[in-house]
Every structure is written in structure tokens, then in C-alpha cells.
Amino acid sequence: MCEPALARIPQVLVHVLTALLLPPLLPGLINKVKALVAGRQGPPVLQLYYDLAKLARKQAVISRATTWVFLAGPAAVAAAALVASLLVPFGHAPAPVHFEGDMILFAYLFGLARFATVLAALDTGSSFEGMGAAREVTFSVLAEPALFLGFAALAKVSGSLSLSGMLALGGPSLFRATGPLILVLAGWITVYLAENARIPVDDPNTHLELTMIHEVMVLDHSGRPLALALYGASLKLLVLGALIVGPLLPRTGRPWADWAAFYGAMALLAAGVGVVECITARLRLNRVPQFLVAGLLATAFAFFLLQA
Amino acid sequence: MLVAVMALLVCCALLTALSGIPGLYLRAGGGRAAAWLMGAGALAGLAAAALVLAGAGPAAQVLSHTPLGSPGYLRLDPIGAFFLVPVAVLPACGAVFGVGYWGEGHEGARTLRLLYGLTTGFLVVLVAAAHALTFLLAWEGMAVAGFVLVMAEDRDPATRRAGWVYLAATHTGTLCLFAAFGLAAGPGGLFGAGAGGFLFTPAAPGLAATSRGALTFLLFLVGFGFKAGIFPLHFWLPPAHGAAPSHVSSIMSGVVIKMGILGLVRLVALVPDPPLWWGALLVVLGALSGLLGVAFALAQHDLKRLLAYHSIENIGIILLGLGLGTLGKASGHPVLALLGFAGALLHVLNHSLFKGLLFLGAGSVVHATGSRDLERLGGLGHTMPFTAAAFLAGSWAICGLPPLNGFVSEWLIYLAAFQGLAFLHPGWSVLALAALAMIGALAAACFAKVYGVVFQGRARSPEAARAAEVSLAMRAPMGVLACACIGLGAAPLLVAPALARAAAALAGTSEPLALGGIAHLWVLSALALPLAALAVLLWAWSRRRGAHTTGQPTWDCGYAADCPRAQYTASSFADSLVGSLRYVLWPRERRPKLRALFPGPRGYRSHVPDPVLERAAEPGFDLAARGLGVLRFLQGGHLALYLLYILVTLVVLFLWMVA
Amino acid sequence: MLTDLLIALIVLTNFAMAVTSRINKAIQTAVVQGVLLGLLPLAMGLGRHPHILLMVASTVAVKGWLIPHLFRRATRRLKTPREVSPIGGFTASLVMCAVGTGLAVLLAGNLPLAPGSRLTLFVPASLSTLLTGFILLIFRRKALTQVVGYLVLENGVYLFGLMLVEEMPLLVEAGILLDLFVGIFIMGIVINHITAAFDSMDTRHLAELKD
């Protein structure tokens, strides 16, 4: 439950500030790493902050085919992602809001964000957005069970039904369950790449209609709605990344060391995504379900390994 | 107090059953009279249910004379009271809707109103029935009245066929129920020996594990499964709910199929020690119905058939909860039982609310455009904003997304599955979790398709372009149901004590556990507020009134020759998923063959036939008919021959009796 | 004594109807049989009960006047009153009727009925009448004679019911009468339709309707 103990207030404050301010840094890091690997200078790491500020000043162009859902979509995405960020622990400190079963709410908040994005895309009445929306919902069918099976496996290992308990592994339980844990994380990495539209599922740099998924859904957004959409996407990078780095962080006694470890791990994750984007090509669209099924099987297998 | 409850219940039954009668004599305004009477009946029913759920105790009444010759027993306990809530609310909303939707101009409006009321009256008696014969009488009445309602537009041959399939299925189910009740009566049967073995008394321990108990359970499962629409007994649902008028479909999907669940719930409540395989079977059937229901829904392009398949999916979710609860009851874990049963019961209520809302919305769309085909709709969000908003609320709820009511019931079932990880064989929990997650994602895909194709974008046909918002009589019930969905989602704690009481009756515990605390329902409410507030704030920020350029065509990457026909259609949206699932759905496609350099206009058609009805049952019956055709020679065509058959039979009987 | 006389007359009328080749004669014989049946309770000495008097009066009225009236209406528009020979011939019908009556007399004693001295002839008579009605229905070809057969069938059932006339409620007897009336009425309509469709009353034509 939400314990209003005075000692937790600084933790909660740092958590909230991280959730609000850190996200736009991650895409910048990814792009910088990609550029460096490719031998270029690349855009500044803080580029997305500048972009968001610029977009907030700009006018938006709104199509006459749209209704109120078009503007409500990005707002809902950002709101859902912000509330979800309250549920997931960054590092070893428990999340500001934790209770039994919070991982279900977490997963469904992202489901809400996806639904809102898809509806905002379909609102424009364009076939490009429809294409992206169709692909998005298709891939989510395989990503959701992988997420839940991973939760089940971690619940079995940690004995806790809350995200703050599940992800705060480390120490003896980590070594006991290394094999299943690695499988779960492998499965979750496929979900991460799919949900955040990174290679090999989707190319964030492409603008060809045959290859876009997430990019195409925000094709007609501009100005402040686009700013919200980009911010929501980067927040998803942070929050879902916290799921992955959580079990891997070492458990030190001191909170500041824990936070530093978390930031370092997120930076490493972003760099890893950047490197993967450089060395892998995007999968053909009809291979993506196979990729996701592989992730699903990894988590399912992890669960069954735990039974043995 | 108990007398008041029973009086209110009888009032509710009589008012709703007789609501169609003034319409038979009034020249105009029959619909309004029916709506008033149904509304009054609904209020009486809700009051009775509220009193019982608040702890007034089960109210019983014995009717000494019924048409069947045996006395009737009515007993409103917490389970019955919980089911009484959708029975009271949904038909009243439908009756109000019917004032605008199926007015005096329609043929058969008076018959429809009369039977609408009768069906509701039978439903009210059914939830309170405590004796097998009373139950069966009300069941049959509801089924036959429902048949006439489905056949309201019987000029259409598709409707007649749908009605016939419905009648055959429901009577097969009732036959199984007769057999099951017969087996359950008498010594050694599940119901023991009260009042000739037909009274719903709790069974003695140990009876459920016998082979007779197992056979009784299976017969009940088949009989109630026909009505509830459990796969593979679901095949009558899509044609019947698609062919019926929309306010009839809303009560059929919302309430009538839940009576199958009521039967299963009563069975589970009366058995104190169900074997583990009962719960396991329910979980498996729930996963199967849920996944297949939503997969088939994805491939439909008829709006009402699609919603009917979603009913099958939600019955699957309810069965998942019921199965998990039964597993908890069988293995002696009260928390698991509570969560599973509470989730199933709450989903019954939630589904009736949002499915009723969706069908009423579909009815408004059909009324305004004259078409049920998704490919001919579009852009209705501009011309029918209220219907669009209500339909969005219903879609949001049915996908189980927070913070609406669908999420709360799925939350409880998820919690039950996670609890089961520790206590049960984990296979069941994993099956339930994976199934629920996939069902949720598929449902979101399907309703994104429906809402996007029907209400968003631009109109795909002249009928859709000409649509106008519907009358107040049709908007009001949709508004009421949407508010109920939002309210239940934002404040589930309000129903938690009632839910806990009903779930305790199911689990066989005398003291209800504190559901709100165990399931952390208050946190859900607490988080719903910042979610909504943040969303509204950010939306307001992004609107920045007056500073946007509006009225522009969709940019669409600079595509100049924009036209509504180039939008994504429903079939295209679902194409990749249907393709991935083609070994489950077996779609039939007719793709155009483009040969020449400048081909002329071509068409594409795809259709997903129902696997049980069109691929198994109908060919099976055709084969049987051909096989039995060899007996045609008995039908000589001569009247004298037939009379001779009768005489010969009589003489043989006489000689046998005498000798 | 009088009862036995009336019953013997009823059985004789059965034989008469089995051999007659004229439709009018068949109808008249059936009417006579009906009136005899109607008067039978009086001969049994049950005239002191008012409801039985009511029953007698209504039976005589329906079977003696109303049914012939309906028949007259039906035959008004028809051409030939002569019957063609039945399937198997007149002799076969008569023989079957006699054999049936004999079997009924022989085996009626084996039926599990309560023993009653004055009612011993009722059962065989009713079974014989029943059988005659069936023979007329099955082996005759003209629709009107088949209707007469139906009438005789109902007479047989009525005769059986007379055994319990004191105990049975009036409703049952009235029900049989109503059944008879409605049946004849409907059959009159049907005969009209058959004649209009096939221009003949021969029911062999109905076999063309088989699919």
C-alpha cells in the first residue's frame, strides 16, 4: 500500500522527477550511439528536449476528418504512461504506489495507451494510419501474453505479487533462478523492442508506408499533440526499460548508489538498443510474429523450468 | 422485510410481464406505456435486489398452484439478487430504446412489446426459482418468448433460418436439463430428497464425486452451455443475435445468455465439495470459448454478428473466473474462491451493461444508416456524436481497459489466476493468464477495428453520409448504461460488499470476506482519478484554443487525390490477424484475378463461416437426411395406407393387452 | 333387456353400412345409429339424472339433426351419389366386419375391466363399431363415405364411454360431441376443396400430392 512514511518522501520525489524529466534523454542516447557506431557525430543527446520545446510553441494542423478522439489520443497515452511510471520501481526502492496485482494494472495501462493511439490514428481516415494501426494491434496480441507469463514466472521466483517485489531480486534468489530469469528477460526484450517500435520490429527512421508502424500512427499529428505523442513514446522506453533492468541491478544498501546504478543501467540499455539498431536490419513484416512468438516461448519455457 | 422483498419481486415480475398489454389496445403511445411499466418494474426489482444484497437474507415464497400441477418455490438469495440487477436494468433500457427504434410504424410492434415484457417477466421468475419445475417453466417460457422476439422480421429468410437454429439449440439444451434435473433428484442424486428431490437444497458431501454426480454435472454443463453459448454449443448465437432487432439482441446477449451462467452458478453453489476436474473443465472451456469467440469476431464484417461473437468471448471470461473459483473451492482456498467467483459474477453484471450498450449503439447505427455492414459505414462520429461517445465507452469497457468496469472484473480474475500460482497446479493459472492476456489484446484489436471503421474517418457510402443523430428515446438508455459502466469502473468499492456476499454464497462460506481489501479495489479508484485528471489536463493543454489550423484535409504524407474509398476497410484491418489465425478460422476468400494491363473493376469477398454450424452441424444433418431417405418408401402417399397403419397398430396393441 | 336390443340394432347398422353402395343410404344408417346411441342411456334407466337427460337431448340433436344437415350441405353440390366399389370389394368389407365383431366378442372378456352384469355387451359392441368405422375410412374411396366412417368411429368411442356415464363428468361426453361436430364441419370444407381441385371425390387423387 501507499505508506505515507516520511522517509519515503525523498524517494518518491526522485522517482517522480525521474519519470518526468529523464525520458527524452533516452532516444537522444540511442541516436547518439547509432551515429557513433556508424562513424558520424550525430544529433546532440538532448535533441528531443529541444524538439519538444519547439513543438510546444508550434501550431498544429488538424484534419477535418477527425473528431475529438484525435487530440485525446496522445493525451491519454501520456497520462497512462505517467500513471504507469508510478507503479514500477526504478531500481531497488519500491515504487510510489505498490500493491498486490499492480503488474496487471501496469500492463493494461499500456493497453489503454495502445488503444488510444490506434483510435487517434484511425480518426484521420487515411489508409496509411490504418495500416500502421492494423499492424500495431496484430503484434500486441503476441506481446501481451509474453509479458504476463514473465510476470507469472517472476511471481513464482520472488513469491511476491507486486512489481516492487518481483523486480527487486538480486542476491541469493537471483542465483537460484538464473536460467529462468535470463529466459524471462530475453522474452521481455522482444516485447520491449516491439512495444517501442525499435528494430527489428519497426524502424523509427523510415517513412515509407510499407514499413512504418508507430511512425505512421502519428503521421498527421503536429504541434502540441505531436509533442505529447513523442513524450509518451519516450516515457514508454523508460518505464518498460525499468522492467528489464530491475532484476539485474545489484543490491547495495545505499539509496544513492541504487539510483546511480539504475541510471547507469538505463543508459546501458539505451546504448544496447542503439547498437542493435545498427547491426540488425528490420525483419520482414510477416516474420515479426515469429520473432514475438519466440519471445513468448522463452517466457513460457522459463515458467516451466521453474516448476522442475 | 422479507415480505417486502418478495412483494417487490412479484411486483417486478408482474409489471414487466404485463408491460406490453396496454400497447395492444392503445392506438398510439403503446411504446411509451410499455417503457413506463418496464421502468417501474425495473425499480421494484432493483429495490428487491438491493435489500437482499445489503443483508436482508434470502426471501422465500411458496406458490401452491402453478400450471404444472406442482407447487412453485421462489427464493431470492444473494446470488439471485445479483443476477436480478441486469435482469431489471437492461430490458427497461431496451424498452425505452424501443420507443424510438421499433415504433408503431414497424410491423409486429405490438407483438414485440408484448413478448419483450413476457420474456422479462419469465427472467425475473427464473432468477428466483428454487424448484426444478419452477426453473424449467420459467426457462422454457423465456426460450419460447425469445424465439418469437428473434423472428420479429420473419420476412427475411435469413431471420427465419436463424430462428429455427435458435429453437433447435435451446430445446436440445432444455432436454439435457430435464435429464439432469431428473438425475439430480432422488436419493443419491445431487439435490437430495427435499420436496421430491427437485428443491434446490445443498447436496450432501461426497455425492459430487460419484459417477452419477459427474454425469449430472456434464448434463447440466451441456444444457446450460447451449443457452450460455459455450464453445462448441455457441453456433446458434451469431445468427440469432444478428437477425433480431437490436434492443432484443441487447437483452439476449446481456441477460438471457447469463441465465445459462446462473444455472452453472447455482449448481456450484449447491455442491459443497466439487471435484477438481469440474473447475479444470470450466477453465479449459472458458479459455476455448474466449479465444475462439474473439478470433471469430475479428473476422466478421456484420456489426451485430461481431458483437454476438464477443458475447461468446465474454462468456469464456466468466467461465474462467468460475472455473478458478471452483478450483479454489475444491482445494479449500477461500481467497482464491472469493476472487474467482467475485470476478465471474462482476463480469456477468459488467458484460450485461456494456454489451447492452454496444447493441443499443449498433441499433442506433442501423436505424440511422439502414446498414449493418461495416464496409458501408464510416465517419459517423461527425454526424452521430452522442452515439459515437456511448459506443466508445462500451468498446473501452469491453476491452477491459482501465478505468472502466470491464477492467475491474478482469482484474479480479487475473488476481485469482495469480493466487492460483501458489496454491494450485500452475498449469491452470498459466492457461488462464495466457488466455486472458491474448483475449484482451484480440478484443482491443477487434474494437479498434469496429469503432475506427464505423465512427471514424469518412463515410464509405451514401447511407453513412446521410446519417443523423437518433432521437432522445434512443440516446437516453445508452447514456444511462455508459454512465453505469464508468461509475462501476471508477468506484468498484460500492458493489464490493454485495459482490462479496454473493461470492460467499457461491463458495459456501457463511461469512463474506472483505473483497475490497483483498483485491485492493480502493487503489484502483484512487488511481483512476489522477489518470482521468492528467488526461484531461494534457488534452486541454494540447488543444490551445484557437491556435490550431482546422478544416484541412488529412495530410497523409502529401497524398493529393484523397477519397473516402481509399481508407482502410474492416477486412483490411483484420487481414493480418485473420491470416495468422487461418488454421483456426478457415476463411473463404474470393480474390480477384488481375490479368490484363488495365483490368476492369473487380471485387473481393471474404467470409468466415462458423465452424460448428456451417462446417460440422449442417453437413452432418444433410448426411443423416440422405441416409434416412431409404425409409421414404413408408410414405406411400395414399391416405388409406396411413389409416391402415393406425388400425394395425391399434389391433396389435389390443391383442397384446388382451393376450 | 331394452339395452341389449338397442345394442344389437347398433351392431346391425354396422353391417348395413359395411355393404351399402349408396352414399345416402350410408348417411341415413349412420344417423339411425347415432339416434339409437343417444337414446341408450334412457334405456339403461339413468333418466333420473338431469345431466344425463341433457346429454341425451344434445346427442340426439347433434347426431339426428345437425350432422345430417351438414352432410346435406356438403352433398348439395355433388354430382353422383353412387359409391364405387371399395378396395377389396363389398364382400371383403362385410367379412372383415363380421370377423372383427366375432374377435371383439371373444376377447372382450379378457380386458381388465370391472365386472358388471348389464354392461357385458357394451365392450364388444363398441369395439365392433370402432372397427367398422376404420373399415369405412380405409377401404372406401369416396371422401364422403370416409367422413361417415369417422362418424361411426366416434360413435364407437361414445359407446365405450357410456359404460362410465354415471361417474364421468359431463365435460367428457360434451367433449366427444364437440369433437364430432368440429370434425364433420372441417371435413365438409375439405371435401369441397378436394372436389374443386380434382373435380372428383375420389381420394386416390390425393396421392399426387406426395413429394
Summarize the topology.
The complex is a heterotrimer of chains A (308), B (659) and C (211).
Chain A: H1 8-21, H2 25-37, H3 47-57, E1 61-63, H4 69-85, H5 102-122, H6 127-158, H7 163-166, H8 172-176, H9 178-195, H10 214-217, H11 223-245, H12 255-279, H13 288-307
Helix pairs in contact in A: 2-12, 3-11, 4-5, 4-11, 5-6, 6-9, 6-13, 9-11, 9-13, 11-12
Chain B: H1 2-17, H2 21-25, H3 30-56, E1 59-63, E2 72-76, H4 78-101, H5 109-128, H6 132-150, H7 157-184, H8 211-228, H9 237-243, H10 246-270, H11 276-298, H12 303-331, H13 334-369, H14 380-383, H15 385-398, H16 405-423, H17 426-455, H18 462-465, H19 472-490, H20 496-507, H21 515-518, H22 521-543, E3 549-552, H23 570-580, H24 582-585, E4 588-590, E5 605-607, H25 611-628, H26 639-658
Antiparallel strand pairs in B: 1-2, 4-5
Chain C: H1 2-19, H2 23-43, H3 50-75, H4 90-108, H5 122-139, H6 143-161, H7 170-198
Helix pairs in contact in C: 1-2, 1-4, 1-5, 2-3, 2-6, 3-7, 4-5, 5-6, 6-7
List the main descriptive attributes of the protein structure presented here.
heterotrimer; B: 659 residues; mainly alpha; 3 domains; two-stranded antiparallel ribbon; two-stranded antiparallel sheet; C: 211 residues; globular
Overall geometry of chain C comes to globular
**What spatial form of chain B do the alpha-carbon principal axes imply?**
globular
% residues in beta strands of chain B = under 5%
Count of the domains of chain C: 1
Measured between the Cα atoms of the first and last residue of chain C, the distance is 55 Å
Poorly predicted residue ranges of chain B: none
How many DSSP-defined strands of chain B? 5
Rg from alpha-carbon coordinates of chain B: 26 Å
Low-confidence stretches of chain C: none
Q: From N to C, what is the helix and strand string of chain C? A: HHHHHHH
Q: Can you summarize the main beta sheet of chain B? A: 2 strands, antiparallel
What does this structure look like?
The complex is a heterotrimer of chains A (308), B (659) and C (211). Chain A starts with 7 loop residues before the first helix and ends with a helix. The longest helix of chain A is centred in the middle third of the chain and has 32 residues, at 127-158. Helix content of chain A is 67%, strand content 1%. Chain A has one domain. The radius of gyration of chain A is 19 Å and the shape is globular. By secondary structure, chain A is mostly helical. Chain B has 659 residues and is mainly alpha-helical. Chain B has three domains: 1-212 and 230-267; 274-536, no CATH class; 611-627 and 635-658, no CATH class. In chain B, the strands form two sheets. Chain B has a two-stranded antiparallel ribbon. A two-stranded antiparallel ribbon of chain B has the order 4-5. In chain B, helix 11 (276-298) packs antiparallel against helix 12. Chain B is globular and about 95 Å long. By secondary structure, chain C is mostly helical. Chain C has one domain (2-209). Chain C has helices spanning 2-19, 23-43, 50-75, 90-108, 122-139, 143-161, 170-198. Chain C is globular. Chain C starts with a helix and ends in a 13-residue tail after the last helix. Chains in contact: A-B, B-C. Chains A and B meet through strand 1, helix 4, helix 5, helix 6 and helix 11 of A and helix 15, helix 16, helix 17, helix 22 and strand 3 of B. Strand 1 (61-63) of chain A pairs parallel with strand 3 (549-552) of chain B, so a sheet runs across the interface.
